[in-house]
């Protein structure tokens, strides 16, 4: 299977002179998602000014985010950084009382080799609030990979599944009482091992995905990240995990290696075709036959008819900045568009294997050539290629 | 280390980039990690530029961290030289890269041997100066570079222009209403029969910088950026400069009189005639600008003695304070600026115009001061506007830092006689809006809402179960009613009595068909 992909799918690599946003931008959506969190970005004026502009008006609502601004004394190691961070964290605890403080490391902390991972456990013990460290810096990562590093760090804090066994017994008991109580209750869940989904999505989108799986009798035990830090799902041996965002390869690796979970490699639920493929990949793992997906997908395509007429036959060029490009390209090809090139900052071939395979299938189905994939693109070269 | 939510002035490299991208055919290269080039996006978005911003990054990544940039920076400079043929390439570090302490000047020297364009290293200490100071320094550096070179090559043209002419120094990209102010200054100078030699940096060409000294004198509309350049030109070439901001009727008159003095001094040695602008000043102030008339009207008299707080950059904060007090009879309880490096000048300017002075770049202090003063209106930056929203005090925005709203499509200068009208409008509307709300509160005018919502309750018979109720509460308030109505309609159509979460999403899908 993998040999076939290498032959027909070309993946190239260019110089990396492209534009993307700094990974600390993940703070702007993660602080909204995790309601009892506080994000402390340890960096310089450049980082702060960027987030100020990125958050726009939200910054005035005094969100659960702040910059620990490093000044000259901090950079030249004249001041004690542990004491500095301790003072700030105590103030955060007083003002906001979050359930977790997440330290976001930046390029600056990388260069001055600030030992955030060393200081965090000590400070956590002293002030009594969990402190997570996520290194979201532009030297190593791009844009959405910030979310990847935060979730990978958070995965370590998820509880063991002992507790989940107890709660599953309760679920089965409720299953019987429910059934006898109301006949109108639509769905009961099948008996299957825990399934945890990972990826940060707005809560109504997450609910919709939960509903789709519920229709197939699959219960989602939890999400990483959860709406509240205190509601983190249980992870461990025997727990199945599945990602919803294409840029979470490090989180996936952490879940497999450190937490010993089983990863379900599926294409991502982007677009009706992607969503269907995602469900179709999950169901067989639990021995369930998916029902009614074909009609659902058809119906959605029907409702999009006006938009499809507008885009059919038009072409797209992805310059690449957010790692979602492969899924988006696949969806647009399915809509009838032509994709010339997919630029992408970084592509993990294993984590995105199912998506790449779906891309190939979609291209064959729509009778268009498979677009070339360019990792770490060069914007000037791309502009030249667009003009040609 | 300090806890910061918001800063009034950005980091130094933004100032350098603003100056570089204002010139025509100048390309800036940032020595920075991925993501530090958000300036491109900001500029395209706020200035609504059609072309790509002429700033790119020479990416600093793990390899650079381990082995140094080596050839990468020089290669990137030479590449831009071949691709874009700029007149000048400016290399600037960012906070991150300045810690690396690479010898960027060396790279610049090596590149300039080979490249056709000139290459300069913008030498600014990122931990000492902010955006505004860096912009000032970079502009001065670029001007000095070209004038020194011209001297060395002895292409020196000593003569002043025959007719009176000026340079306007300090109009540049992402400035607060800069484009409009520039248009207004052009109009004014045309009325005064003075030619414009050059406007820098906005739209200026570095090749023309050598002709700067041909003008009779320099105008610096905003003292934050441009003053260093003017002082340098004054020292080296004896060019006089006027750094009064032509904002407000009184300062406008002073500004024009300064111009008159400069023109007449130099007219003695050239063949120009002497000028007398007093009739012009009189005509503009009393008849063309509506602001002076407005300040005598009853609408403005109502504002007499009302208390305000003013905060912003030195130019705008000082000028607005003086306008409010001198021209509109409004009291300023506290005036302040975040430009700490210029505090002395600021204090001198507004001494006697306000009760208290606040010099700080900590927005929390500003917020505390406003909460303490409880003014009727605030004139400040976007941050003060939000403080005002929180405290329910109306606010007009009079200074950077800016937001997309401060780049209006319409013509809204702050300088010149048209500027006096705009400022008067801004002041009056800020107060009026606040008063409207108070009046409605006092006289119970908010009565129309309740009746309407009552009449829409045809919800008889529909039950929302607890989960769907919870789901509904997660929807933001402004969309909630619509979602509720749509779901009710759908449920009624399908004959469903209990609304569950599935029904909600089915209704949502049905909306699209």
Structural description of this entry:
Chain B: This is Light-independent protochlorophyllide reductase subunit B. Chain B: Its EC number is 1.3.7.7. Chain B: Pathway: Porphyrin-containing compound metabolism; chlorophyll biosynthesis (light-independent). The complex is a heterodimer of chains A (388) and B (513). Mean pLDDT of chain A is 86; it is low at 1-7, 163-167 and 177-186. In chain A, helix 12 runs antiparallel to helix 13 and helix 15 (325-334) runs parallel beside helix 16. Chain A has 3 domains: 11-15 and 304-387, 3-Layer(aba) Sandwich (Rossmann fold); 23-141, Nitrogenase molybdenum iron protein domain (Rossmann fold), CATH 3.40.50.1980; 195-286, 3-Layer(aba) Sandwich (Rossmann fold). Chain A is of the alpha/beta class. Chain A is 47% helix and 14% strand. Chain B is of the alpha/beta class and 513 residues long. Chain B has 4 domains: 12-153, Rossmann fold, CATH 3.40.50; 165-284, Nitrogenase molybdenum iron protein domain (Rossmann fold); 292-443, Rossmann fold, CATH 3.40.50; 463-512, Orthogonal Bundle (Helicase, Ruva Protein, domain 3), CATH 1.10.8. Helices cover 51% and strands 14% of the residues of chain B. In chain B, the strands form 4 sheets. A 5-stranded parallel beta sheet of chain B has the order 12-11-10-13-14, with helices on both faces. In chain B, strand 13 (377-380), helix 17 and strand 14 (395-397) form a beta-alpha-beta unit. In chain B, helix 7 runs parallel beside helix 9 (227-237), helix 8 (178-191) crosses helix 18 and helix 21 (477-494) crosses helix 22 (501-512). Chain B is globular. Residues 450-457 of chain B have low confidence and may be disordered. Chains A and B meet through helix 3, strand 3, helix 4, helix 5 and helix 6 of A and strand 1, helix 1, helix 2, strand 3 and helix 4 of B.
């Amino acid at each position: 299977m993998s040999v076939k992909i290498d032959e027909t799918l070309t993946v190239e690599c260019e110089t990396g002179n492209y534009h993307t946003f700094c990974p600390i931008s993940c703070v702007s959506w993660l602080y909204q998602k995790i309601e009892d969190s506080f994000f402390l970005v340890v960096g310089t004026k450049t980082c702060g000014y960027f987030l100020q502009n990125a958050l726009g008006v939200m910054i005035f609502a005094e969100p659960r985010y702040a910059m620990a601004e490093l000044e000259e004394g901090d950079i030249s190691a004249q001041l004690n950084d542990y004491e500095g961070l301790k003072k700030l964290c105590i103030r955060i605890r007083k003002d906001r009382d979050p359930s977790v403080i997440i330290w976001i490391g930046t390029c600056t902390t990388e260069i001055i080799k600030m030992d955030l991972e060393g200081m965090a456990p000590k400070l956590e013990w002293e002030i009594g609030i969990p402190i997570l460290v996520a290194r979201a810096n532009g030297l190593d990562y791009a844009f959405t990979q910030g979310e990847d590093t935060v979730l990978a760090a958070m995965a370590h804090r998820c509880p063991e599944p002992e507790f989940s066994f107890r709660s599953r017994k309760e679920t089965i008991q409720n299953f019987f009482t429910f059934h006898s109580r109301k006949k109108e209750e639509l769905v009961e869940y099948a008996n299957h091992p825990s399934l945890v989904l990972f990826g940060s999505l707005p809560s109504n989108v997450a609910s919709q995905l939960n509903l789709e799986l519920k229709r197939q009798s699959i219960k989602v035990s939890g999400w990483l990240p959860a709406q509240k830090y205190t509601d983190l799902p249980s992870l461990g041996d025997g727990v199945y995990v599945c990602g919803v965002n294409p840029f979470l390869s490090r989180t996936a690796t952490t879940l497999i290696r450190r937490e010993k979970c089983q990863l379900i490699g599926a294409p991502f639920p982007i677009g009706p075709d992607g969503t269907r493929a995602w469900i179709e990949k999950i169901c067989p793992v639990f021995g369930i036959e998916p029902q009614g997906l074909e009609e659902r997908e058809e119906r959605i395509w029907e409702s999009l008819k006006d938009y499809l007429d507008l885009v059919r036959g038009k072409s797209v060029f992805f310059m690449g900045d957010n790692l979602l490009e492969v899924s988006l390209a696949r969806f647009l090809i399915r809509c009838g568009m032509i994709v010339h090139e997919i630029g992408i900052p970084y592509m993990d071939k294993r984590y995105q294997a199912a998506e790449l395979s779906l891309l190939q299938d979609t291209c064959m189905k729509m009778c268009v050539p498979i677009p070339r994939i360019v990792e770490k693109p060069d914007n000037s070269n791309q502009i030249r290629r667009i003009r040609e | 280390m300090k806890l910061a939510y918001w800063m009034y002035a950005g980091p130094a490299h933004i100032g350098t980039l603003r100056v570089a991208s204002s010139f025509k055919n100048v390309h800036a290269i940032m020595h920075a990690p991925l993501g530090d080039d958000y300036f491109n996006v900001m500029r395209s978005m706020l200035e609504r530029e059609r072309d790509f911003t002429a700033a790119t990054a020479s990416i600093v990544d793990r390899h650079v961290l381990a082995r140094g940039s080596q050839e990468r920076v020089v290669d990137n400079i030479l590449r831009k030289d071949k691709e874009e043929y700029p007149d000048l390439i400016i290399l600037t570090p960012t906070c991150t890269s300045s810690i690396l302490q690479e010898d960027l000047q060396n790279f610049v020297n090596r590149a300039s041997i080979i490249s056709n364009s000139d290459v300069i290293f913008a030498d600014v200490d990122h931990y000492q100066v902010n955006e505004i100071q860096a912009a000032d320094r970079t502009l001065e550096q670029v001007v000095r570079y070209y004038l020194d070179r011209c001297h060395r090559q002895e292409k020196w043209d000593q003569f002043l222009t025959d007719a009176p002419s000026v340079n306007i120094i300090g109009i540049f990209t992402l400035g607060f209403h800069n484009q409009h102010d520039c248009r207004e200054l052009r109009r004014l100078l045309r009325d005064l029969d003075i030619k414009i030699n050059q406007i820098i940096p906005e739209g200026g060409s570095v090749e023309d910088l050598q002709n700067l000294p041909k003008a009779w004198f320099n105008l610096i509309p905003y003292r934050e950026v441009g003053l260093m350049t003017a002082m340098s030109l004054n020292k080296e070439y004896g060019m006089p400069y006027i750094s009064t901001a032509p904002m407000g009727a009184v300062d406008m008159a002073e500004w024009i009189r300064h111009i008159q003095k400069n023109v007449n001094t130099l007219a003695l040695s050239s063949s120009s005639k002497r000028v007398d602008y007093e009739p012009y000043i009189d005509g503009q102030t009393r008849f063309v600008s509506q602001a002076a008339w407005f300040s005598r009207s009853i609408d403005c008299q109502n504002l007499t003695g009302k208390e305000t707080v003013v905060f912003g950059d030195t130019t705008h904060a000082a000028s607005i304070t003086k306008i409010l007090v001198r021209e509109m009879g409004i009291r300023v309880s506290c005036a302040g600026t975040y430009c700490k490096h210029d505090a002395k000048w600021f204090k001198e300017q507004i001494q006697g115009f306000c009760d208290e002075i606040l010099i700080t770049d900590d927005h929390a202090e500003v917020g505390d001061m406003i909460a303490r003063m409880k003014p009727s209106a605030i004139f400040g930056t976007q941050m003060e506007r939000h403080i005002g929203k929180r405290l329910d005090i109306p606010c007009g925005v009079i200074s950077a830092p800016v937001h997309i709203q401060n780049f209006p499509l319409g013509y809204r200068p702050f300088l010149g006689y048209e500027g006096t009208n705009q400022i008067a409008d801004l002041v009056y509307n800020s107060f009026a809006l606040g008063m409207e709300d108070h009046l409605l509160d006092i006289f119970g005018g908010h009565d129309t809402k309740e009746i309407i919502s009552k009449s829409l309750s045809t919800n008889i018979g529909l039950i929302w179960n607890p989960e769907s109720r919870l789901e509904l509460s997660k929807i933001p308030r402004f969309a909630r009613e619509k979602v509720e109505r749509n779901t009710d309609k759908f449920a009624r159509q399908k004959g469903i009595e209990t609304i569950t979460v599935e029904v909600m999403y089915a209704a949502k899908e049905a909306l699209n068909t």
